[in-house]
Write a structure and sequence with these properties.
This protein has 143 residues and is an alpha/beta fold. It has four helices and five strands, in the order αββαβαββα. It is globular, with a radius of gyration of 14 Å. 40% of the residues are buried.
């Protein structure tokens, strides 16, 4: 989670500071990313999607079997679906996303019995630190 927090903190694009890291089954960091939506024209450039794409490129495979996706904030429906489709073994996040989170708060895509792959979900890792990053961002960008 510290690496994901570092990715969020080092984000240079003025976007919601969310960081994501993909770690292999052997503990190797395959990818690290932050939100990139505001830097271009890709509405899917959430930190999770960017990291999953980079991990797929690093492994040469879309299936990320045995990998862990670590994210500072609970993934949205798109990102939760991407993690499920990438076949990650574990999804770890820090802060809950009570507006549109999709890993237990509003929706629960990874544990939905209708999906073909159900990664383990671990929530609340360094929750306060992850939550404060987002709160600070919105406090300065909404005033």
């Amino acid at each position: 989670m510290r690496l994901a927090l570092q990715a969020a903190k080092s984000q240079v694009i003025p976007d919601v500071p969310i960081g994501a890291v993909v770690i292999s089954a052997t503990g190797e960091v395959l990818a690290s990313a932050s939100n990139e939506r505001a830097g271009g024209t890709d509405p899917t450039a959430h930190a999770e999607v960017v990291a999953l794409r980079a991990a797929g490129a690093a492994t040469g495979n879309w299936r990320l079997d045995g990998c862990t996706l670590v994210v500072t904030v609970e993934p949205c429906p798109m990102c939760a679906g991407a993690a499920v489709n990438a076949r990650v073994e574990r999804l770890v996040f820090g802060a809950w996303n009570t507006a549109y989170g999709a890993c237990g708060s509003v929706f629960d895509i990874p544990r939905d019995p209708r999906v073909t792959h159900r990664p383990e979900v671990v929530a609340g890792v360094l929750e306060q630190e992850a939550e404060s990053l987002v709160q600070e961002f919105f406090a300065t960008h909404r005033s």
